[in-house]
Structures are given as structure tokens and as C-alpha cells.
Specification:
This is Hemerythrin domain-containing protein. The chain is mainly α. Helices cover 77% and strands 0% of the residues. It has two domains: 22-159, Four Helix Bundle (Hemerythrin (Met), subunit A), CATH 1.20.120; 184-244, no CATH class. It is built from ten helices and no strands. Helix 2 (50-77) packs antiparallel against helix 6.
Length: 244
């Protein structure tokens, strides 16, 4: 379970400003990939092929859940702290809040379309669904780029590493709490996607530096097999598109 997050304001005693925000670049890379691929996967489902729509629909649900969780975690951790500690960032924080709200509006329009399309594989529903996801993709792409340019440098200066790490801890705890809903392979998918988001030439060093030894062993023995199986299910007839 994630530790309790201290209140916004001055840094807690014993913590110091300055944190490594580079992991957020990998997370953003995953979201760009997920929402680039999802409309294509939806459109590839043949009319009436409800077996395939069920497969794609399961991963669409995971994509939507992940985006909700990511933005809710940022809302909880980032904005109040940045405004309190770097008032010059207030305008950018306001833009981030507004963009998160717009993403939530788009998701609220998209998510109710999932079940009707899954159970029918109706091509008319499919096209509206895929088009709305593309609109979300374009909004998200612009938002992620602005966050990388305007927010991450400030967060790296004014937040402590403990505060930054809370976001990863909270994400992991939330996924574990929802494993029954999301599927037993959700933690394998999370780690597999993170590894895939690292350029191949840097991957081995990144895993050694960022994944604890017991988890590395578990990944090799079990989690990688689950991740690979999920990717084969999503892309049964072609190679998995690269993320980087």
C-alpha cells in the first residue's frame, strides 16, 4: 500500500527539493503508444466478430482505467505543490487542470460506447468509437508534450524524491487493489510496457537500475511470459508495433 502523502506546502522535515522526473517520460511514451494503437485495433475488428471485439475491448478498458488513474494521481500529487512552491508555474498548472478536465469529458463520452460495441461488433458503432478515441489521442498528445516542457522541469526542482516516488507507489497500490477487475496479468503488463518504452540499447541497464532483483527474477520466470501472451493476443497476425 502507498504511504500517506504529506500535505501540500513546505517540504516535510528531512526531505530536500530535487527529484528525478525521467520516469514520467516513459509513462507518457506508453500512453502515446496505447492511444495511437487503439483506434487501429478497433477498426481492424470485422463486423460481427464479437470474439475479437471482446479481446480488443478488454485492453481498451485497461487503457481507459490507466489514463483515469494517471491523471487522478497527478491531480493528487502535483498541482497544489507546484502552485505553492513555484507561483510562476500557476498559469501552466491551470492549463494542466483544464486539460485533465477535458480528457475526463472525452473519456465520459467514449467509455459508454465500449460495451455496446463489444457485444455486437457493429461497424457503425466501431467507427464512432474509433473516431472519438482519435480525438482523445490528439488532445492527449498535446497535453503530454506541454506537461513535459512546462511541468516536469519545475517539479524536478521543487519536489522531493519521496513526493515524486509516491506517484509510482500509488499507481502500483491502485493496480493491485483492482486486480480482480483488471486481470491477474495487469502488473505484468505494466512492467512489460515500461520495459518496452525504453530504447532497446538502454533496456538492460535500465532494468538493472530500476527494477529490484526479486522483481527482475519474477519477470523472467513468469511476468514476461504473461506480457508476451497479452501482446500475441492483441497482435496475433503481425509484429507488435514498437514504442520507441
Amino acid at each position: 500500500m502507498a504511504k500517506k502523502l504529506p500535505s501540500p506546502g513546505p517540504l516535510p522535515a528531512g526531505q530536500h527539493p530535487g527529484c528525478d522526473t525521467s520516469g514520467m517520460i516513459l509513462v507518457h511514451r506508453i500512453f502515446r503508444w496505447l492511444y495511437r494503437e487503439l483506434p487501429e485495433l478497433v477498426r481492424e475488428v470485422e463486423p460481427g466478430d464479437t470474439a475479437r471485439s471482446a479481446v480488443v475491448g478488454r485492453y481498451a478498458h485497461l487503457d481507459f482505467f490507466a489514463l483515469h488513474m494517471h491523471h487522478e494521481t497527478e491531480d493528487m500529487v502535483l498541482w497544489d505543490r507546484l502552485e505553492a512552491r513555484e507561483p510562476a508555474c500557476t498559469l501552466h498548472v491551470g492549463q494542466m487542470r483544464a486539460q485533465h478536465a477535458e480528457v475526463a469529458v472525452r473519456l465520459a463520452r467514449i467509455e459508454p460506447q465500449l460495451a455496446p460495441w463489444v457485444v455486437t461488433a457493429d461497424p457503425r458503432l466501431r467507427e464512432v468509437f474509433a473516431t472519438d478515441i482519435e480525438g482523445l489521442r490528439d488532445l492527449l498528445s498535446a497535453h503530454l508534450g506541454q506537461e513535459e516542457d512546462d511541468i516536469l522541469p519545475v517539479a524536478g526542482e521543487v519536489m522531493s524524491q519521496q513526493e515524486w516516488d509516491f506517484m509510482e507507489e500509488h499507481t502500483r497500490a491502485t493496480l493491485m487493489a483492482h486486480r480482480k477487475e483488471l486481470g491477474k496479468d495487469v502488473m505484468s503488463l505494466q512492467l512489460g510496457l515500461l520495459i518496452a518504452s525504453v530504447p532497446e540499447a538502454e533496456r538492460e541497464d535500465w532494468v538493472r537500475a530500476n527494477v529490484p532483483a526479486p522483481i527482475r527474477l519474477l519477470y523472467l520466470l513468469l511476468m514476461k511470459r504473461r506480457y508476451d501472451s497479452a501482446m500475441r493476443e492483441l497482435y496475433p497476425d503481425r509484429p507488435v508495433p514498437t514504442m520507441v
